[in-house]
Amino acid sequence: MCFIAWNKGQHFGNRYVFLRGTIQYSRKDSRTLQLYQQLNETLLKFLDSISKKAFQTSSTTDSGAKKELYDISINGLDGSLINLSTLKGKFILFVNVASKCGFTNQYKDLERLYKEYQDRLMIVGLPCNQFGSQEPGSSEEILSFCEKNYGVSFLMTQKVQVKGKAQHPLYQWLTQKSMNGRSNSAVRWNFQKYLVSPEGTLIDYFYSTTGPLSSKITKNLV
């Protein structure tokens, strides 16, 4: 059965709660779940493409000029400054992360993805507490959690706002077509992913339900 529920994509027993609904399914029928996941993501991308309210262009510089991705900097989890220009020539996968989310276990596959493609890929994890208050810890607590539980070795930043009035300039660029030249989007939950090319152009974005090792992502890393 399917009914509308304003919840997020997570497993609860034999239920999978989607961004826009809840599907009851049998564990033997994982194909049905995959089809609903694909349908859900297609619907959300369609909604993103037609939405206007979420994609205001107030994030341009005072002169009205658009920022390039490599002009942006962000504070690392250890307090150091990360200039994105230092990542030129590599794919970059930006992921807003949280320590107490149903998708937190994706850290494991993010690390696997990084280890496999680190010659051409950098993953940047951006802790965010805007979805269900699921990243309440300090920078020290987040760092300890990631290293102890998942052996995270890719870049991690300090907490950021990925939406709203205090949206970080990086997410202004990632979510606004007027800046990235490709697509409008909205960050809908933890572990949404944005893939950028070695030339600094947005390739695509992926909702939380797309795992880090999905072919949707890895097919681009060739």
Automatic annotation (TrEMBL):
One of its GO terms (biological process) is response to oxidative stress. InterPro entries: Glutathione_peroxidase (IPR000889), GPX_AS (IPR029759), Thioredoxin-like_sf (IPR036249). CDD domains: GSH_Peroxidase (cd00340). It comes from the Bacteria. GO terms for molecular function: peroxidase activity. Keywords: Oxidoreductase, Peroxidase. SUPFAM superfamilies: Thioredoxin-like. Belongs to the glutathione peroxidase family. This is Glutathione peroxidase.
